[in-house]
TrEMBL record:
This is Uncharacterized protein. Residues 207-227 are annotated as: Disordered. It comes from the Eukaryota. Residues 207-221 have a biased composition (Low complexity). It comes from Heterodermia speciosa.
Length: 227
């Protein structure tokens, strides 16, 4: 697909200020009204009946699949922040993923929090997770956060901002998009969505609150520090 999309970007004339992905969907995938450039775009799976060329369909599918992955995480984080921002604060703490996403000279970057949450969801067992975490290293964040002092709302907003930056990056820079999908992980259907992400973290948070014998509730020590 690398040669195919590279040739496309060099040979097709797009509209002024049109992203390569929108141009591709309009001219090659025959989806003139589809836009996958931001979290809340009108983006949907490509129609196999409308695209006869296998490479064109594969390209359109990967555009949609990467959008679906990033937007699912962003919208789930938004929902969690609205319902209980402490869930974000608790799960964004630096932990075992420091070995996967090491701190630079002890400075915590927002990618550490993001990668930690991906691992917390299902131990990053989905192929798309591995591709996404690999991509974070390719396009490192400069956004610093402090998981101890920042509120869950602030951390959640920073995570969503980071996802929006990544979305803009892959939709406007074909080389970055190809880096994200180079392993073929996004050609598969991954097994979670906005509701799955939200429910998993809300359930994990609920499991830390136990009911005492007198009918009251007690907070587990692991989250007692949360503001």
């Amino acid at each position: 697909m690398t040669d195919y999309l590279t040739t496309f970007t060099k040979s097709v004339t797009c509209k002024p200020e049109e992203s390569w992905s929108t141009c591709f969907l309009r001219t090659i995938a025959k989806e003139p009204r589809m836009n996958c450039t931001n979290i809340y775009s009108t983006c949907r799976p490509p129609s196999g009946s409308a695209i006869s060329d296998t490479k064109a369909y594969y390209g359109a599918w990967n555009i949609w699949s990467t959008w679906n992955y990033l937007s699912s995480w962003s919208m789930a984080l938004s929902d969690i922040v609205a319902k209980n921002p402490n869930v974000i604060k608790d799960n964004a703490q630096p932990g075992d993923t420091d070995q996967f996403m090491p701190q630079n000279n002890g400075v915590q970057k927002v990618d550490i929090a993001l990668s930690n949450m991906v691992h917390m969801l299902n131990k990053a067992s989905e192929p798309a997770d591995a591709a996404f975490l690999r991509f974070l290293k390719y396009v490192p964040s400069t956004l610093v956060y402090n998981a101890t002092s920042n509120s869950g709302i602030n951390i959640g907003n920073q995570l969503q901002s980071r996802l929006a930056v990544l979305m803009a990056k892959i939709s406007t820079d074909v080389d970055s998009f190809l880096k994200l999908v180079e392993g073929g992980e996004f050609s598969r259907v991954f097994n979670y969505n906005v509701q799955t992400i939200e429910n998993t973290f809300m359930r994990q948070n609920a499991s830390t609150v136990s009911t005492s014998t007198d009918g009251g509730s007690s907070v587990d020590d692991s989250i007692a520090h949360i503001e």
